[in-house]
Amino acid sequence: MNEPKKKFYVTTPIYYVNDVPHIGHAYTTIAADVVSRYKRLDGYEVFFLTGTDEHGQKVHQAAQQNGVDPQTHVDKLHQRFKDLWVRLNISNSDFIRTTEARHTQVVQEILQSLFDKKEIYKDSYEGWYCTPDERFWTEKDVVNGNCPECGRPVEKIKEYNYFFKMGQYGEWLARHVRENESFIQPVSRRNEVLGFLDKPLGDLCISRPKERLPWGVSLPFDDDYVAYVWFDALINYISVHGQPGQVRDCGFWPCDHHLVGKDILTTHAVYWSCMLKAMDLPPPKNIFAHGWWTVNGQKMSKSLFNVVEPNLLADQFGVDVIRYFLLREVPFGLDGDFSHKALIGRNNSDLANNLGNLLNRTLNMVEKYQEGKILEPSASAPEDQALADKASETVQAVAALYDQLAYNKILAKIWELVDQCNQYINNMGPWNLAKSEEGQTRLTRVLYNSCEALRVIAVLIYPFMPESAEKINQQLGADFTIEEQGLRSIREWGFLPAGLQTRPGPQLFPRIEEEEEKKIMEQANAPSAPAQAEDENKTEPVAEQIEFDDFTKVDLRTGKILEAEKIKKSKKLIKLKVDIGCETRQVVAGIAAGYEPEQLVGRTVILVANLKPAKLMGVESQGMILAGSEGDKIILAGFDHELNPGVRVK
Ligand SMILES: [Zn+2]
User: Fold this and answer.
1) Which of 8, 156, 222, 584 stands 20 to 30 A from 310 (CA)?
2) How confident is the model over 424-453, as a mean pLDDT?
């Protein structure tokens, strides 16, 4: 009889549907994907959940601004996440949306049962409310009448609301955190939660009056209210398996890992654990809070976002290189910095020079000395055993590191094996062995071992780089996939059958040469063109106030476009010659999505004349012309009567 499969459950947060997917989202989701793929190789039945959080004030507002109903709005927006996960080769088992009936029904059942059990009560509440953040602040939180989090004005609100008796679970939770070291990781975050639990835990307001916020899950016992968005959202982790009774029996609860950003650790560690306690469900086994990404040392902003957009990165470097880089570069749990330079460095050294080179030289030698065939190997010598031992040690070490989600250490460990195999080939010198008959017998072992090491490496890197791993496997001539081989195939040396005909293919990880690197860096450093359709559904809040003097520093001039031509290789950029009266400027503008060059000649535009020159795609731009963009549309700013070139615009 077959034993039932062991089960493994991992989740990402459900992402806020209004957000534009960025490398932070990609990072968490790739991390969940890697551990899922590894556990599948290890014979587990894996449930890997991701999805979107689709309720709340901001969704409602954004829909209103776009003149659509909220459901239409989220139906459209959530697709960006789904598409990105397909692009990044994410193997999620399900994608849950909080507006789906399968979710909202469970939320309502849970609310009703907690209400029946007197875990929820009604009370009046008075506080300072920040509408954009959807949260109340106490008197002492508020800074000069403004929200301490976003700095926008708060208003005093008194209203009746429903509360979850969270306070009664404070002591239990503190004990649980203290007694279970791996419940919250990393340690620094665990200490933060313990610090938070030092103070008595209050009850949690879990409702919002519909008159203020109509977009949410209605409370089943009071139709004038919707559930607080977190109370609704957190339940996604179980609603995907059904009601609490079904969750208890599904085999996936308690969840093995909730992966979360450090900013939402409290809601998970505290609110969610207490909610589960009230439902008589055990807390998750582990909540892992990872760090944040900066870009070139700066907080991710709209303009930086343009150059590190995950789809764009995948186009530029390939999906597997991005997956590798994000998890290799920074220890999971710490903050990381993204830079194109570091990414290119990793590609060239770890991937092209080490692993790529190992594959190429091995297959070349099999081709040259054995007509592309992996031959029955001769007996093992002690120096062969050292390589086999290293492989088995690596397999064990990697297994232990997965328990800590120490992705960067796992990869470092695998690369030790890559290095050792390269060293082994250097020491054995196949090129010398090939010269004698005796040597040729020995050579069968050396080449077999190199191929077997490559197969072990392919299985080990598969969770991180599934496509590349499969390609290595195919180039070795295997007629079985890596998933079919599984982890058990690398627990003992020698699974690779002799007699395979290798199939060398194109370079797996081409080096990014200097010329190309220069181009990538230029693009990455160029100021973003005005025509980035990054989030057509968001109207930005007004920026910080400036003095009149600040404004007059900007020298705006009328300019007449004399020439216009598309910049080759760019979909967005047009090179213009613009007459601004006193001189002629060359300007590169990101307006090709809205205008054909021939439409532009003769037009009068507004130019920022004293902007420092910058290079875009290698072409110098001496100024910037003003345009507005909405979605994919770009409209140049202009005048309703003709003006001469060089007139100052104020
Ligand atoms: Zn605020």
Assistant:
1) 8
2) 96
Q: Give the Cα separation of 74 and 69 in Å (integer).
A: 9
DSSP structural state of residue 354: I
Least confident of 121-125, 239-243, 618-622: 618-622
Instruction: Check which CATH number belongs to the domain holding 362 and give it.
Output: 1.10.730.10
Residue written as token pair 């209400």? 115
**Within a domain: 497:** no
pLDDT, average across residues 397-423: 97
Query: Which residues 6+ apart lie within 8 Å of 349 measured at CB?
Result: none
Other C-beta atoms closer than 10 Å to the C-beta of 484 total 10
User: Amino acid identity, residue 250?
Assistant: C
The verdict on 243 and 384 lying in the same domain is no
Could you tell me the distance, in angstroms and rounded to a whole number, from the CA of residue 128 to the centre of ligand 1? 10
Residues 383 and 469 in one domain: yes
The reported pLDDT for the residue numbered 533 is: 39
Tell me, in angstroms, the distance from the centre of ligand 1 to residue 147's CA.
5
Is the domain of 276 the same as that of 214?
yes
Whether pLDDT at 640 is above 80: no
Domain end (from 490, 519, 553)? 490
Q: Tell me what pLDDT residue 551 has.
A: 80
- Closest C-alpha to 450, from 508, 496, 518: 496
| 3-class secondary-structure state, position 473 | helix
Determine the pLDDT at residue 392.
97
Q: Which of 181-195, 244-258, 626-640 has the lowest mean pLDDT?
A: 626-640
On whether residue 218 sits in a domain, the answer given is yes
Distance of CA 142 from the midpoint of ligand 1 (Å): 10
Query: Quick one: pLDDT band at residue 54, thresholds 50, 70, 90?
Result: very high
Which residues is 288 bridged to in the sheet?
A: 185, 259
User: Residue 527: its pLDDT value, please?
Assistant: 55
| CATH number of the domain to which 215 belongs | 3.40.50.620
Neighbour tally for 118: CB within 10 Å: 8
| Domain-located, residue 617 | yes
* Contact (CB, 8 A) for 259 and 225: no
Looking at the structure, tell me whether residues 259 and 113 fall in a common domain.
yes
Q: Do 555 and 480 share a domain, yes or no? A: no
Among 190-204, 521-535, 565-579, which is the least confidently predicted range? Answer: 521-535
Instruction: Give the pLDDT confidence of 248-264 residue by residue, as tens digits.
Output: 999 999 999 999 999 89
Q: Is residue 389 located within the same domain as residue 474?
A: yes
Boundary-marking domain end, from 255, 290, 325:
290
Q: How far is the CA of 195 from the centre of ligand 1 (A)?
A: 24
485 lies in the same domain as 541: no
573 assigned to some structural domain: yes
126 Cα–ligand 1 center, Å: 17
Domain span including residue 543: 536-636
State how far Cα 240 lies from the chain centre. Answer: 22
pLDDT above 70 for 230:
yes
Domain co-membership, 284 together with 343: no
Residue partners of 376: CB distance under 8 A and separation at least 6: 444, 498, 499
Q: Considering the chain, what is the average pLDDT of its residues?
A: 91
